[in-house]
UniProtKB/TrEMBL annotation:
This is Sortase family protein. It holds the Pfam family Sortase. GO terms for molecular function: hydrolase activity. It comes from the Bacteria. SUPFAM superfamilies: Sortase. The chain crosses the membrane at residues 67-86. Keywords: Hydrolase, Membrane, Transmembrane, Transmembrane helix.
Amino acid sequence: MARRFSVKIPVSRRRPLKSLAKKDWRPILIQIKAKVVLIGKKLRGTILGKSANILELVKNNPKKAKIAGLTILSVVIILFVAYIFFDRNTVKVVIGEPEIITFSTDEPEEAIPSGNYTWIGREIDPKYINLPTISRSGYIQHVGVDQNNQIAVPSNVFIAGWFVNTVRPGQKGLSIIDGHVDGPTREGIFHRLEELQIDDTFEIILGNETVLNYRVLEVKTVPVSEAEKHLFEQKLDVVSQLNLITCGGNYNRESRTYEGRVIVMAQLMGN
């Protein structure tokens, strides 16, 4: 694996931490919600197919039906509480000066961020992205310009990267967040990004837990040679725009790169 380099802010220039490291529960809730929705879709056909039997049970044995319903609800609540309070792999969050990634590698890390990962950033920095319609979510690093004079890519396939030379999400202007479509062996955070549709919505969660809701305006795949032009394009009638980018198109095995880029343009809702 290629060695990863980064630039850290000198200690003398760091702001004092406003809080100690704390566990971040919101991503767990997002993941639970996604799993519940997935399970619900899988069970939908089964439940509909047996709806007649269920109605018969309720009609003939209302007491048993009530007990069965309460039992199922109790099990769900117990599992939920256990998942929240006994999970030992929760990511820690620290409010402070972040590390900025300035080195891109073709072999990013493929370990899911867990208890050994700490997100560091300001309260107004983007911390987490949730794309429910394609079942993708993850933390957001700070990325700058890399060794090739391009936007650096995140050091982990499960983490997105906010380009710090653009405005923060939620502010007036254009924000850019990039992410891997895949790694050497695993799918990346922006895998299936091209499947987003116009009017789909997604969330950006800031360091202070503020939730920003975005609506997709356009999804397109362009050649690498045209990617920069489209990536930095901001629509005239959009006050706060966020563009997402990842690799797409055909994969060239000789150069070990994708021949295109998938770009999603989105607008902050309420603006």
